[in-house]
Design a protein that fits this description.
- The protein is of the alpha/beta class and about 350 residues long.
- The protein folds into two domains: about 200 residues, Alpha-Beta Complex (Quinone Oxidoreductase, Chain A, domain 1); about 130 residues, Rossmann fold, CATH 3.40.50.720.
- Helices cover about 20% and strands about 25% of the residues.
- The chain has ten helices and 17 strands.
- The strands form four sheets. Strands 3, 4, 5, 8, 9, 16 and 17 form a seven-stranded mixed β-sheet that branches.
- α4 packs across α5.
- The radius of gyration is 20 Å and the shape is globular.
- Bound molecules: NADPH dihydro-nicotinamide-adenine-dinucleotide phosphate.
- NADPH dihydro-nicotinamide-adenine-dinucleotide phosphate (NDP) binds next to α1, α4 and α5.
- One of its GO terms (molecular function) is alcohol dehydrogenase (NADP+) activity.
- Pfam families: ADH_N, ADH_zinc_N.
- It comes from [Torrubiella] hemipterigena.
- It is an enzyme of class 1 (oxidoreductase).
Amino acid sequence: MSVPNNFEGFQAPNAENYLDFQKGSWEPRPFGDHDVDIKIECCGVCASDLHTISGEWGGCPYPLAVGHEVVGKVLRVGSKVTLAKEGDRVGVGAQVYSCLECRQCKNNNENYCQHQIDAYGAKYLDTGFTTQGGYSSHTRIHEYWVYPIPEALSSPDAAPMLCAGITVFSPLKRFGAAPGKKVGIVGIGGLGHYGVLFAKALGAEVWAISRTRSKEADARKMGADGFIATNEEGWAEPHKMTFDLIVNTASSTDGFALKEYLSLLDIHGRWNSVGLPAGEGAAIRNQDFITNGCFIGTSHIGSRSEMLEMLQLAADKGIKSWVEQIPLSKEGLQQAMKNIETSTVRYRTCMVNYDDAFGN
Ligand code: NDP
């Protein structure tokens, strides 16, 4: 199968009509020695896609194809590529480049490199090419950000792990989710459901912390040992100072009582907010967490080594994503974005049937 001269994709046309996806095409950046050309098979839908095209995060270049949870097949590799070969089934996440030379890159922290490039809406400094995401026919990616997908994982199950999964797996690993630790996951959406699955797989006691009880039965099936609904009067009281780590995936701060959530942590426990809501964020005073001296932080996706470890763990432990598949089309993307807006997605959408959208 040959690589076309132009790649095609469903692009958000402008900020006013960001859900009016139009099929567009573009010339990919020049093929480099370390590049891998991939024919995309499916792509998960992240709340970040919506934050981006709606302008909530401050705007993006249009027209733009978003989507950063890609699985596909390698069509061709550059002359110096050693990490992938033609015919492999591979994945690509939210990051597609970093310098690989700085202090952060050399310490397996390339997801914090100052020269990193996102999977969509970012410019390569050398060519000026603006990255286009995974609601597209093909993509061209530096081999370092191309990951082999274990046989045991189906493509629609693996795709959402490449952003949603890794974004919770990284802080769970780094901050010690393990046997004997009590871990809370705030927000049971795409990221949050992986938070429950992976915290359990790492051996921790895991509690789902959601706004209502509507997701309780599902969260318990995912492995949650306990469930807290924050719309209930006095919800924090029985759980004060009992958690070692809480990973917060909430995508909005509307009505978010940060002080109450922090009160759940044990002494020097850790609050890690991976959610990236629009707006100013929550206000916090030192007095709000002086009772437990907890640490407040955030984290950005994960590194290549964490990605490989997560995929292997998922394959070894038979971790099953909760995925709704929708055929890729303008209407399909609109439906997927609406399901995020209304919090009705259970729990990640994966866009599929790419051959119908782009041909063979
Ligand atoms: P989803 O919409 O799938 O899930 C978000 C969940 O947050 C909802 O299901 C809901 O859970 C909860 N939530 C929403 N609003 C509120 C609120 N006002 N108060 C409390 N809880 C709320 O989104 P994703 O999982 O795809 O993404 C989550 C966030 O993570 C987004 O902001 C996204 O941009 C960000 N993100 C960050 C990354 C990083 O590297 N740090 C990488 C990828 C995504 P429930 O109904 O259970 O209350």
